[in-house]
Amino acid sequence: MRVIADFHFHSRFARACSKDLTILNVERTAAFKGVHLLGTGDFTHPQWMAEIKRDLHSAPEAGLYCTDEKSPVRFVLTCEISSIYSQGGKTRRVHTVFVFPSLEAAEKFNQTLRKRGAKLAGDGRPIVGIPAKELAKIALDISPKAIVIPAHAWTPWFGVFGSMSGFDSLLECFEELTSQIFSIEMGMSSDASMNWRLSANDPITLLASSDAHSLHRIAREGNVFELSQRNQLSYDWVYATIKDKDSKKFPYTIKYYPQEGRYHYDGHAKCRFSCPPSQTKKLKGICPKCGGKLTVGVMARVEALADRPEGHTPKSPIPTKHLVPLEEIIAEALDKGVGTKTVQNEYEQLVKAAGGEYQVLLDLPIEELQKMTKPIITEGIKRVRGEKLHIEPGYDGEYGVINIFTPEERKELLGKKQDTLF
Ligand SMILES: [Zn+2]
Ligand SMILES: [Zn+2]
């Protein structure tokens, strides 16, 4: 049985997050999409924790929680903390995700943070002055089975490997605790093959998370687990699968294209200038339009820390499958906005018919899909599965642009359909 797991998104109590993010709405959305394992997110926030306690209870699977035993969705306790501190004479800003095996352990973690002066009520993702390593120590002292995951590891400002205020290695950040940090979150701007270029990442399990701020983005990126039986699932199973980096139990991650991330290429958004790292070197890091500093993106940062050429594949790899969210495929095929009624109706009808969003994106044969939806949408899904798309990389906070069809291709495809109709 396949389980799609997303450990990192936020509640309505985190900054810039949708008011619709309640536990019950999250559960409903995940069930509809065919997602089975979610982090609670934001358990450090007192009001969200109260909602967790009100709406979730222990599931039959040890260490997991559910709204109702009959629901296909299970929750695990997670939160994200932003640490801002000084180390080695530099300001460091690092986000870390924590996964805990029980409500009791999560509450102890909150108490300890409060005792250390952390203000937890202001934001679902609190900002603390406690170094990432200290947080890891607190978590692991409370529960040796806690999972400490450096969040969106490559993001320039808040990633552990970030170019602006991160570190050059996990060792530099976590020192003697490094061996207990066995996974990182790749973040939107990197994928597995980019991370494989660092031999230091060889023992590390690469995770994908949505970091969603609204319901429809939940599990837009995630981890695909394979269980021989549903009743195998438990906190310990998840812990061991991630820790052991077992590619049989964890065959791949699903992600957006890293180029779509806001910091893939280098560039200067104000001047609408972007370039690959090789050109940044030639420009000596200076924006050719204004003379200001270019923001160095994830690709350049990987290049700087990599000790292997592009194209290296490790033994028993857990690769990334690149996807485009179904709503966006439909929107592009129909040349309409994602939020429009036409797109939403088509999306809901197709997901219902197929029994889940990932059934549509990953599993169902094209011939089956043809019976459920329009030919141009089926063609879009086929192209996404074949990873044959038109890509403009993101830079300096600007999202990249991925197109499945050029306007000419769309016209041609729609024309074809007309021909068969008349
Ligand atoms: Zn974050
Ligand atoms: Zn500029």
TrEMBL record:
InterPro entries: Pol/histidinol_Pase-like
Region forming the signal peptide: none
Coiled-coil regions listed: none
CDD domains per the UniProt record, alphabetical: PfuEndoQ-like (cd19067)
The protein's name: DNA helicase UvrD
Native source organism of the sequence: Candidatus Doudnabacteria bacterium RIFCSPHIGHO2_01_FULL_50_11
